Amino acid sequence: MSSAMGSDLIHQNAATLAQAIAKGEVSSREVTQAHLDRIGEVDERVHAFLHVDTDGALAAADAVDARRAVGDELGPLAGVPLALKDVLAMKGIPTTCGSRILEGWRPPYDATVVERLRAADVVILGKTNMDEFAMGSSTEHSAYGPTHNPWDLDRIPGGSGGGSAAAVAAFEAPLAIGTDTGGSIRQPAAVTGTVGVKPTYGGVSRFGLVALASSLDQAGPCTRTVMDAALLHAAIGGHDPRDSTSIPDPMPDVVGAAMQADVRGMRIGLVRELSGAGYQDGVERRFREAVEILEHLGAEVIEVSCPIFDYALGAYYLILPSECSSNLARFDGMRYGLRVGDDGDRSVEEVMSLTREAGFGAEVKRRIMLGTYALSSGYYDAYYGQAQKVRTLIQRDFAAAFEQCDVLVSPTAPTTAFKLGEKVDDPLAMYLNDVATIPVNLAGNCAMSLPVGLAPEDSLPVGLQIMAPAMADDRLYRVGSALEGALYDRWGHLLIEEAPAL
Q: Which helix (H) or strand (E) segment is 404 a member of?
């Protein structure tokens, strides 16, 4: 395969690649090898991947080519490569969650998301870097070093799923899976110029997803186009009896909605509490321009108020650490992963303590301590209990807003990508990056971030967030696809044609 052909393949979107593979115009092996070559070329600088499964990916690609050769009908993403966030179990493949405490662990089973990707004949390239146990907004809290933003290698790619977003933005993969607990798909999408979707809570199975906060975590797509996100969402979504929180109702038709791409007659709400204050000027400017485009396309734009959103950040940083404190208790050095100090002279308690001291990073320890305190006797009602009451009020704010409009919009992140190291020692400044994304997770609703241009002051991507009610994921794709099409007409190309720093 020539270098020119490989370059052409990595710049195609997933839907186009799948069609070409299905028609026999190119093989899945050629497409997969082109992306493996790209990883070899640029990932030393980007560090999007923690593990690349070259042999497994090529074997999966060959299996797709063999099926096509005998005339089997292939699915809409068959043969297309994908990068998988390292928080989802994949049988026999290292799964670390970005933490030393799970270094070398190879799960004996596949997560449901992985099973469904395999069933859809998607080729999994490997596992992507992330903030340790998905705790962070910059991927600087990975035990294996930070990921770099392909737009500027001195800047963060967002977090906690910065590896997945960076892999897509760097053309190392046309598709990726992330997880979103408070914005960990959407915020990386915003700062890397990609599309990221947080599905309705319960719309994608959490079986095999290593839990951070069980009432908030949700896996979803990372792509370069809205249609690719819809195809990937359709492939991984749907009921799973192994997940007690999985929604039994049929999935909305997200692919049909992406094809519809029409906002005429829709009512779009601007959330007063998520507008203006604290946003970078260029972020606000591009957001307002995108809203004007939606009006021009036939949508009615109104302002709505969700006053309890002002308390979402505080409630989230009580609920998440509390659930994290409970979930991470299983990592004790006794059953799997790292074990420190087991020399025969120490008690079980001492080994557990030494293992956790060595295995967990500073941010993980900070959140475990916060959560343990919030759940402790005498403080539960004052902290965790109060936070859950705020959560209920946020759900009511959303319900009232959706009585007035079909979707809500806001900037996804308050700024463009900041410099590596700029906020790593200031937890509060880091937490504020998720101020616009957190309410959706607390309510269990769905949301999308898509690129709406570059901020004039630094030429870095800006994301717009679309929010919809639970099980109305199709509205995200209808609005997102219409806006993407209008922006394409304006620019004459997608936002990312080449990773600028590579």
A: helix 386-404
Instruction: Compute the distance between CA of residue 451 and CA of residue 465 in angstroms, rounded to an integer.
Output: 9
Enumerate the active-site residues.
85, 160, 184
User: Under 8 Å CB-to-CB from 57, ≥6 apart: which residues?
Assistant: 32, 36, 81, 123, 124, 125, 126
409, 293 Cβ separation under 8 angstroms: no
How far apart CA 330 and CA 336 sit, in angstroms, is: 10
What gap in Å lies between CA 63 and CA 221, rounded to an integer? 24
Q: Which long-range contacts (CB under 8 A, 24 or more apart) does 2-9 make?
A: 5/30, 5/34, 6/33, 6/34, 6/37, 6/38, 7/34, 9/34, 9/35
Residues 118 and 92: their CA atoms lie apart, in Å, by: 14
CB atoms within 10 A of CB 419: 13
**311, amino acid identity:** Y
Rounded to whole angstroms, how far apart are CA atoms 267 and 271? 13
- Taking only the tens place, the pLDDT of each residue in 414-455 is 999 999 999 998 888 899 899 999 999 999 999 999 999 999
pLDDT 10s digits, 344-363: 789 888 888 899 999 999 99
Comparing C-alpha atoms, which of 401, 78, 468, 80 is closest to residue 252?
468
- Give, to the nearest 10 degrees, the angle between helix 281-296 and helix 473-491: 100
Which amino acid makes up residue 39? I
* Element spanning 114, H or E: helix 112-119
Domains of the chain: 3-264+447-491 (3.90.1300.10)
Residue 4 confidence (pLDDT): 61
| Structure-block tokens of residue 391 | 């959560």
Please report where in the chains the tokens 């089997």 appear, as a residue. Answer: 72
